[in-house]
Structure formats: C-alpha cells, structure tokens
Design brief:
The protein is α+β, with helices and mostly antiparallel strands and 175 residues long. It is built from 3 helices and 8 strands. It has helices spanning 3-17, 154-166, 171-174; strands spanning 38-48, 51-59, 69-75, 82-88, 99-107, 110-123, 128-140, 143-151. The strands form 2 sheets. Strands 1-2-3-4 form a 4-stranded antiparallel β-sheet. It has a 4-stranded antiparallel β-sheet with strand order 5-6-7-8.
Length: 175
C-alpha cells in the first residue's frame, strides 16, 4: 500500500466516521447514497460470494464533485444494504484525478473490477484529459489486489510531459 493510499484512507475514514448513515435529515430511505459528499454513477453491479454488490463513484471531500473514488455497498436481499467503505482510491499517477466509471466481472470465484483512471493533463491541442483503463482483482470483500493496466495512452502523455518540462514550466501549472 502506498503512502498516498494510506493518507487517502485515513482522511476518508475520518469524514465518513462522522457521517450520519441512518437518521440524517437528508438521508434517502430507499436509495443508496454515499455517507458524505457527492454521488455519481453506479458501477460494477454483480452477485459475488452470496451477496449483491454495488460500487459507485463518489467524491467524499466535496458535495459538488472533486476527486472521485469508488464506494461499495452489499446486500443479501436488495432491500437492506450495508456500506462496505471505499473500494478504490485515486492513488497512482495514472488515476490521480479520479477513479471514473467502470464495471465488474465475476469469474472463477474472483471479482474483477474495471475502471477508467483520469489524469487531467491536456493532450496535444485536443484539450482532452488522459484516460487509462485499469483492472483490479478482488478475492474477498475487504481485499482488493494490486491495480494493473489494460489500456493506456502513455506515449502521448510522456510526449506532453516531456514538452512541458523542456519549456521550463511545472507540470502542476498545466493541470
């Protein structure tokens, strides 16, 4: 586990521990929602080891969006849901601006999560952010294995970074 992952885990756990998951005035009664922050799309809906799983993209630090993570709920009956915590963190150079949309595949008693890592370095003159397709293996509800790349446009990104550095600018000034 990287230092960044540890820092993100600690900060997310701190704000989630203060969240009112049951009685809050604005808590929804029949819909899933994150403990805090901004909710986006559901991802990776599947049946795995006797439970339904729903992952969702959310921003725990900002109710208007921001750094995207994946939260995780489970259920045995699709009525009562248990929040399992944050499943995926934007903790690498290739998903540092967010863990974006994806899916799940259960095969051979293992769950495979697929997601798009977002990096907001402008590519060429197109003005588009860089995206990387990731795969994560999950062997138990609490154990997510190392991320691995499926697809990446690293050559374009390295070319852009090289040009930025040669120009004397800081990479952070271009993001």
């Amino acid at each position: 586990m990287s230092t960044l992952t540890k820092v993100l885990e600690k900060n997310v756990a701190e704000i989630e521990k203060n969240a009112d998951m049951k009685e809050g005035r604005f808590r929804l009664g029949h819909h899933l929602m994150p403990p805090v922050g901004w909710l986006n799309d559901p991802n990776g809906l599947c049946w795995y080891k006797g439970k339904y799983h729903v992952f969702f993209q959310y921003a725990p630090f900002d109710v208007e969006g921001g750094l995207k993570f994946w939260g995780h709920y489970t259920s045995v009956d699709l009525v009562d849901w248990k929040y399992e915590g944050t499943a995926l963190y934007p903790d690498s150079p290739y998903d540092c601006h967010g863990v974006y949309s994806g899916s799940a595949l259960v095969e051979d008693e293992k769950m495979h999560l697929f997601f798009t890592g977002n990096v907001k370095i402008t590519l060429m003159k197109e003005g588009k952010p860089a995206h990387f397709m990731w795969k994560v293996k999950m062997e138990s509800i609490s154990e997510i294995r190392k991320k691995s790349f499926l697809l990446k446009n690293i050559r374009k990104i390295l070319h852009v970074i090289s040009g930025i550095l040669k120009s004397g600018k800081k990479i952070t000034d271009t993001i």
